[in-house]
Amino acid sequence: MNNLQSFFDQMKIEILEKHKRLNNLILYGVKETEKSTVDLIEIIKNKFKDELNITFEDRDVNTIYRIGKNNTENGKEGPILLTFVNLWKKNEIVANKRKLKNVYVSEDYPKEILDMRKKLQPKLEEERKKGNYAFINYDKLVIKQGKPGNEKRKKEPSTSPNVKEHPRKQQLAAKTNRLNAFDIMRNRSNSLPSANLPTDQIA
Q1: Are strands 140-144 and 104-107 parallel, antiparallel or unpaired?
Q2: Which residues pair with 49 in a beta bridge?
Q3: I need a surface site. Which of 41, 107, 114, 193 has the fewest CB within 10 A?
Q4: Helix-strand-coil percent breakdown of the chain, rounded to 5?
Q5: The pTM is what?
Q6: d(CA 108, CA 23)
Q7: How are beta strands 140-144 and 133-137 bridged, if at all?
Q8: Strand duo 80-84 + 24-28: pairing
Q9: Could you give the CA distance from residue 72 to residue 74 in angstroms, rounded to a whole number?
Q10: Does residue 56 contact residue 89 with C-beta atoms inside 8 Å?
């Protein structure tokens, strides 16, 4: 019982940790030229606007700061932790991150997840060399045979509109035919000569 409770407690901690980092992004390679947090936000806003065509306002940012100490003397810029208020804005940037120049964007994973993803990297490259579609989803390697988009969709047989008509259309067509037949019979009866008919039968 204690083991089961410990398991659920650990699962709860992991879920909370994952949720806390859900809206976070880590940016690597951004030069440390800012003098304040306001400057840093402007640098990132301009970067995303110029290279990704994505804009956001100051109110869309919950947190932004450099991680670790200043390493500019060693030629290394400290990574930036950027937390958005809305998840959709973060996902929009992730979807277009390959367009960035000299800047790398990643999810904010816990250390143990980063270590696991690092261990999965050789296997990921191996599967891709085989021609398979592979990617790492959080802490798991997902492999699909072949490349995406190779499977051709089967053409569904189309039903000719003449084969099966809508019941309402069939009713209207039948009603129209009956009316047309009635009109024809009435026209014929009106066109008959009345001279040869008896006087009492003439309308």
Answers
A1: unpaired
A2: none
A3: 193
A4: 50, 15, 35
A5: 0.57
A6: 8
A7: antiparallel
A8: antiparallel
A9: 5
A10: yes
